[in-house]
TrEMBL record:
The keyword Flavoprotein applies. It comes from marine gamma proteobacterium HTCC2143. InterPro entries: FAD-bd, FAD/NAD-bd_sf, UbiH, UbiH/COQ6, UbiH/COQ6_monooxygenase. GO terms for biological process: ubiquinone biosynthetic process. Pathway: Cofactor biosynthesis; ubiquinone biosynthesis. Residues 14-351 form the FAD-binding domain. This is 2-octaprenyl-6-methoxyphenyl hydroxylase. Keywords: FAD, Flavoprotein, Monooxygenase, Oxidoreductase. NCBIfam families: PRK05732.1, Ubi-OHases, UbiH. The keyword Protease does not apply. Its cofactor is FAD. GO terms for molecular function: 2-octaprenyl-6-methoxyphenol hydroxylase activity; FAD binding. SUPFAM superfamilies: FAD/NAD(P)-binding domain. Belongs to the UbiH/COQ6 family.
Length: 430
């Protein structure tokens, strides 16, 4: 991979694909395109953050460094995502610093129903994995450095996209100025608040949940044993995802707690002891006593969906296409499956000499992936509402439903396959 903080390689201003956004989704797509085209596709990734700040790698060793931090933000990877990432050669490195999810315990505070899903139920090594975002990003970037057909411009930004009859003109700004590059296809992957999506006049549909997600890493007395917890309370859903131990050996989990604006404001500012007491009251004692909370942060909860995912020469992806409620941890996993489906379409088109920005080709990608998107978005959207309902009939059915999963193995297996994205056949043929 050619890296530049100043200008693009002189010999290359014409690309097959330009990816605006070099985060986890953009980097994953670049790796998939490079791998499954045998590095024949010419790809440019443009990222606003300096590559040195996100790479953290040793130039001599060519592999990323791991810098443990108690407060590191993390992402839940489904088992289906591991299946996607393994052929790219990144899993051996990633697995050095992941916490396995061997079971998922789902319960509703104040109701009798609960269920626990285990990897043994589906005969997988794990149901999923929790990985720190910085480590995931560093490993993806380190692997991209080995891809001869991929250029990476950081810091840089795509400031304008202008479709042409055959291709797209892209204005790219860097510290050395602006220049024009051309591509058959531009990927808009610059996040939920995408400026490029707005610039292109692509509207969004927004569902406001009128809650905040409070996120923090917490410590506790009892070993989590690889168990992830989904706890539904009258305040809102709460997820605790297992993490690797801190550099001081503390047991850790990543907390995502959905709360009202008022509750969030209070819990962000209150003393640590008061926060831990409130958490203990809502979660219970399955992990023993909570002993520490790290930095506390929050963001508004809303479902944002792009009303257009494709135009001629343009694809909107990642959070720019659909930003989900975090309760089920489906956002990045769905985006990764989108990347797989698009890679299938583009590499097949490239082999047959087809124009990669062809609208019929891109609409075919959306049509093939739409069922996965709709089911996953609906799952993430409806689950909190189901468990937040205070109506007695709904409460009873909810409790019975959780209990039924424990006595209906087929239903539990289907639920686990859905959560892992395995029923959609997301893996590519090598």
């Amino acid at each position: 991979m050619n890296e530049s903080a100043e200008a693009l390689p002189v010999s290359r201003s014409d690309y097959d694909v330009v990816i605006a956004g070099g985060g986890m989704v953009g980097a994953s797509l670049a790796l998939l395109l490079s791998h499954y085209s045998d590095q024949r596709l010419r790809v440019l990734v443009v990222e606003s953050f300096p590559i040195a700040a996100v790479k953290g790698s040793s130039e001599s060793a060519g592999s990323p460094n791991y810098s443990p931090s108690f407060d590191a933000r993390s992402t839940a990877l489904s088992y289906g995502s591991r299946v996607i990432l393994e052929p790219l050669g990144v899993w051996p490195l990633l697995s050095q610093h992941v916490a396995e999810i061997n079971s998922i315990h789902v319960s509703s505070r104040g109701n009798f129903g609960s269920t626990e899903m285990c990897s043994a139920d589906v005969q997988w090594p794990s149901l999923g994995y929790v990985i720190e975002n910085t480590w995931l990003g560093n490993v993806l970037l380190a692997q991209l450095r080995r891809c001869s057909g991929v250029d990476f411009l950081a810091p840089g930004s795509v400031t304008a996209i202008s479709p042409k009859s055959q291709g797209v003109s892209i204005m790219v700004a860097s510290e050395s100025g602006s220049e024009e590059v051309t591509a058959q296809l531009t990927i808009v992957a610059d996040g939920a608040d995408s400026k490029l999506r707005e610039q292109l006049g692509i509207s969004t549909t927004v569902t406001n949940y009128h809650q905040q997600a409070l996120i923090a890493n917490v410590s506790f007395r009892n070993d989590h044993q690889g168990c992830a917890f989904e706890r539904f309370t009258e305040q809102g859903p709460m997820a605790l995802l297992p993490l690797t131990n801190s550099d001081r050996g503390e047991l850790r989990a990543a907390l995502v707690w959905s709360l009202s604006d008022q509750q969030t404001t209070h819990l962000l500012q209150c003393p640590e002891a008061e926060f831990l007491s409130a958490l203990q009251q809502q979660f219970g004692h399955r992990l023993g006593e909570f002993t520490r909370v790290g930095g506390r942060y929050s963001f508004p909860l809303k479902l944002v969906q792009s009303e257009e995912q494709v135009r001629s020469g343009i694809v909107v992806m990642g959070n720019a296409a659909h930003s989900l409620h975090p309760v089920a941890g489906q956002g990045f996993n769905l985006a990764l499956r989108d990347c797989v489906r698009l890679t299938q379409a583009l590499t097949a088109a490239h082999r047959h000499g087809r124009y990669l920005g062809d609208i019929e080709l891109l609409q075919g990608y959306v049509e093939q992936q739409l069922f996965d998107q709709q089911k996953t978005i609906s799952f993430s959207d409806k689950l909190p509402a189901l468990f937040n309902s205070k109506q007695l009939p709904v409460s009873i059915l909810r409790s019975l439903g959780l209990g039924a999963l424990d006595v209906l193995p087929m239903a539990k297996t289907m639920f686990v396959h859905h959560a892992a994205g395995m029923q959609y056949g997301a893996a590519l043929d090598a």
